[in-house]
Amino acid sequence: MDPANITVCAFDHIFTAESTQADVYASVQPLVADVLEGYNATIFAYGQTGTGKTHTILGMHDTELAAPSRSSTPDLTLFAPSWGIIPRALIQLVDSTVSNRDCTISCAYLQIYNEKIFDLLTDKKRQKPLMLREVLDGTTDMVVQGLSTYPITSLPDVMAFLKRGYDL
After folding, report:
1. 54 is in an annotated binding site
2. What is the Cα–Cα distance from 123 to 30, expressed in whole angstroms?
3. Going by fewer Cβ within 10 Å, which terminus of the chain is more open, N or C?
4. What is the pLDDT of residue 61?
5. How many CB atoms lie within 10 A of CB 116?
6. How far is the C-alpha of 108 from the C-alpha of 151, rounded, in Å?
């Protein structure tokens, strides 16, 4: 074995087949807490087709997407066992910001497939690859040009957002 051809990979955790969605979320939950402190965070699922990325990130089934009434307040105990990272993170964010009027949450739903970016909240018949662009304001910020964003202010908004992305 040639040491020059060795690839070193690093990872934080290996989940077994017995791991639950709650186990997975517990490992990324500190990132969600960091967002509430003003830091950026990315949770990224990568892998071959059929390896469980969608299940890990979204996790829910259409029957679990019924939105509660508008009078509902966020409640972290509402997680269905199959809910993945996104619904759990959104509910945690809404729960933590519901009393903070200076904080807004907006969400986008995108997929990178074969090195092309797609907005999952647009009609699939009109869906075209989007472009990743650098913001030319002296920062190193990047933006996906034309990506839809939606405001989230309540648990029903979270559920409607997830259902919209799931249905399209």
Report:
1. yes
2. 34
3. N
4. 64
5. 11
6. 9
Residue 7 is labelled as binding a ligand: no
Query: Would you kindly state where each structural domain of the chain is located, as residue ranges?
Result: 15-105+151-168, 109-148
Does domain 15-105+151-168 sit in CATH 2.40.50.140?
A: no
Is residue 153 annotated as involved in ligand binding? no
Check: pTM over 0.90? Answer yes or no: no
Where residue 146 falls among pLDDT bands split at 50, 70, 90? very high
Q: Is 125 assigned to a binding site? A: no
Residues 65 and 163: beta-carbon distance below 8 Å: yes
Check whether 71 has a pLDDT greater than 60.
no
3 state SS of 106: strand
**Helix orientation angle between 21-36 and 85-97, rounded to the nearest 10 degrees:** 40
For 80-88, what is the mean pLDDT?
87
Q: Is residue 165 a known part of a binding site? A: no
Q: According to the annotation, is 53 in a ligand binding site?
A: yes
Q: Pick the more confident residue, 22 or 137.
A: 22
